[in-house]
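step 3/5: co-fold with arginine
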Amino acid sequence: MKKILLLVCFPVLLHAQGGMWLPMHLEKQNEKEMKAMGLKLSADDLYSPSQPSLKDAICQFSGGCTGEIISPKGLLLTNHHCGFDAIQSHSTLEHNYVEDGFWAKNQSEELPCPGETAMFVSRMEDITALALQNVTEMMGDRDRQSQIDKNLAQIRANTKKEKWEEILIRPFYNGNQYFLFVTVTYTDLRLVGAPPSSIGKFGADTDNWVWPRHTGDFSIFRVYAGKDNKPANYSPDNQPLQPSHFRPISIDGMEPGDFTMVYGFPGRTDEYLPAIAVQQTGEVLDPLKVSIRERALKIMDGFMRKDPEIKIAYIARYANIANSWKKWLGEMQGLKTYKALDKKKTLEAEFTRRVNENSAWKFKYGNLLPRLEQNYKEFEPYAAARDNFQEVFSRNVQLMGLVGNMNNWIKSYEESGLAALNGKMSVYREQLDAFYKDFRPAVDQAVFAALSELFAQQMRPEWGGDVVKKEAANRGGYDKLADYLYQNSLVASKEKWEALMTRDPKDIGDALKNDPALLLWRSVFAPYQEQVSPKLRELQSTINLLQREYMAAQLDVFREKRFFPDANSTLRLTYGKVAGFSPRDAVQYEYQSDLDGVMEKYIPGDYEFNVPGKLVDLWKAKDYGQYATSDGRLPVCFLGTNHTTGGNSGSPALDAKGNLVGLNFDRVWEGTMSDLNYDPAICRNIMVDMRYVLFVIDKYAGASNLIAEMKLVKGKKKRKK
Ligand code: ARG
Ligand code: ASP
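step 4/5: write tokens
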């Protein structure tokens, strides 16, 4: 009897899972379900605007990741790939922290990391009513937005905050609701520890987005504050932050079925789009971007494998470009395999059926789907042109990205003379110095030659495709065009730029405005700006408006459902269970990987699958200390049903009592589609087991000073029989 009940209940429960919930609504929306699934805390323990709560240990790390505080002295844990820019920027062939790792033995050895930030949320408020005051349904998009902007300015002015706090306002449910966040941002962060890439990036791009995984994807920073414990710019006199809250770490480990939650800052999802939009992403835009990046990556990879100096310079850039490339590939495949379009179409049929049965709805919502369909169709070629332009003339060719950025500056010199140049000269010098640090002209030139040819093929002739084709023909081919540009552009190497900077400002301005790289960029940008941008903006604004109405309609028509707001880089909690999965017939994935698996993948000296000698020794000796399982293994990564996305990297995975048990860092290949089509049967998040993190810090790196700062809990968990 009990068994039957379980079988009946389980799919229902699974179905209810997914979602990235607002901390302030947990009590109303989720607490009951979370407790039924095993949570031992109250909603108030997780989020409270007035008393210290778990959320006070969670921060957005440097705008795009999540981090958590794990010691009373401000130690911050995040992923290796989140700290990678910082690790890379301190690395040279002599001090190769990317390759060898880095461990500060005491606070004086910690490395300052300008640009890295930690943003905490003090409290949040639902400000929908005030934000939408005097907004009417009859208003056009522009009028509506300007009324909202006025309201928001008022709200900002009236919100009480301390002087070290900031106010952040974000639309939710495509602009149907608004929330305000009072935040505190620390800017003095220092690098404390990072494993070598052969641990922190083990498996690199081959294993990225894939299960089974064996990566120790973590790095450690420390947050510093002024003498008053408030945010302060970097100063040697700053003190480690004394946090109001930090997370204890459990080394008991997790088993399938255990409750887990992930608390962090998911960046962006689009779960409520119409079928046509999902189709466009999966069948047109993803494949387009994938084709461009594939070429760029292959070229960079060739250079990096041959030259260790180039490898250091390009490794972070390569990882970023490769990460989205591979995600889009997985997304394309997942949407197809798991029939996302059919699911959306079924939902739309039900929507239409309900709407047609209700005359008020029919009047309000009856036209939405056909209008979305028509606008998305019209939008498609423009969106493709946008991606073509951005991927080639901004994102993947460094020189084009550079002159594109300089364009406005040089334009103002042409229009208003020397003053414009002088005013920003020092800013540009600084930016260019930073740019050249990781720029190797030979690599970029080869990327340009390949991508400009692809651009000429894929971009409509009248939107810039022809310009590039003709330029190449004039120079005798794409390679020759590339040769010409990189030989003659005054910004195509550090030496030329420095030589240029010794000339007087007027010379500099005149040289720059005639620079061949800038001239090419401009001749491609001109048709884009004239013929693509305006239409793109117009259609995007119509689509935004329709999508807002369609979101409101879904909330209205499917009242029996619980809708979470799409991710928008704000603090969210997602929860689920530790679980493996079956991606297809006759294949079952285990929920956990361990160090034996690292050794199975080990290829001595390999670019992606090397293992440090010391780790091999520890494995041979089975010297895992208190981090071993009862049967003597060392767990490395594990899976859960938590609904996560980009931005959740570095988020704490917590157990039923709120102890840190894992560090979120990725999703499984079959589930990378989850931003558009979350499927609880297939989508899994990947976490590094905290036992592996601690083992690496303690046994591998010998950084017992760090372990001593943390609070470890163990032996408190009852084992299920
Ligand atoms: N896929 C993960 C995320 O989206 C990890 C990326 C880091 N690893 C890499 N090889 N690029 O960010
Ligand atoms: N790896 C991602 C991140 O960096 C997480 C994900 O997309 O699942 O945020």
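step 5/5: annotate
Residues 1-15 have pLDDT under 50 and may be disordered.
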